[in-house]
Amino acid sequence: MGSAKNKDSAARKARIEEMRRAERAREQRNRILTIAASVVIVVGLVVGGVVLVQSQSGKDDEATDAKTTGKLVAGEDGVSTWKGTLGRTHVKTSVKYPLEPPVGGNHHDAWMNCNGDVYTKELANENAVHSLEHGAVWVTYTSKAPKADIEALAAKVKQTPYTLMSPDEKQKAPIMLTAWGAQRTVTGADDPNVGKFFEKYVQGEQTPEKGAACTGGLSE
User: Fold this and answer.
1) What pLDDT does 214 receive?
2) Higher pLDDT residue, 46 or 118?
3) 174, 145 Cβ separation under 8 angstroms
4) CATH code of the domain made up of 65-201
5) By CB atoms within 10 Å of each CB, which of 3, 45, 108, 134 scores lowest?
6) Superkingdom, according to UniProt (predicted)?
7) Are strands 137-141 and 175-179 parallel, antiparallel or unpaired?
8) What pLDDT score does 170 carry?
């Protein structure tokens, strides 16, 4: 009788121990699965974060001026004017403008000096556009423009506050005049439309920030 009880007790202990071993094994498997799942999630988050940063970095390098809408419309007087909205947000990135040279839009918070300043190198559009916002007229030219015209226009700019001049090989015509929201081509320094454009647009009614400084900005 005692022998039978001892056998039952030993068998029960063996079953209990087996159940405990099975439970420990199950817990260990669960821990392994949990750790593996956590590793997968962390890796996914890291990869996703890298992709997001790279994507945002690309956007920071060059941004479309989303606040600018509309188009440049040619007028009977030869002056094309912007019909629509021109963004005016200060940005730290380069901006994709729809025109070359641009007639306005989002721009850098630093303007190019435009107190009759003549530059011999191409300017960053983002800085020059800020000058336009202050009421400046921007004279630009390509290598196709005659040297005599370039020199004559430079002399005129130097005598006129709220103007600036620089080369721009990406524009469509040899000589162009640009103000905020307005632009035209001219045939040369003796074209009477040069004087007319200056008279109308230097600190003209189109100026968003009339009276703002054209000094204290950037220079070559």
Assistant:
1) 96
2) 118
3) yes
4) 3.40.30
5) 3
6) Bacteria
7) antiparallel
8) 98
Strands, E, within the chain: which ranges? 62-64, 69-74, 80-85, 90-91, 94-96, 107-108, 115-118, 137-141, 163-167, 175-179, 182-185
CB 115 within 8 A of CB 127: no
- Specify which residues 115 forms β-bridges with: 163
Residue 98 is given by DSSP the state S
pTM (two decimals): 0.72
CB 202 within 8 A of CB 164: no
Contacts of 136 (CB under 8 A, 6+ apart): 114, 162, 163, 164, 179, 202, 214
83-117: pLDDT as tens digits: 999 999 999 999 999 999 999 999 999 999 999 99
Give tens-digit pLDDT for 116-142. Answer: 999 999 999 999 999 999 999 999 999
Strand order in the sheet with 182-185: 69-74, 80-85, 182-185, 175-179, 137-141, 163-167, 115-118
Which residues lie across from 182 on neighbouring strands? 81, 179
Q: Is 129 exposed, middle or buried (CB count within 10 Å of its CB: 0-12, 13-18, 19+)?
A: buried
pLDDT at 216 over 80: yes
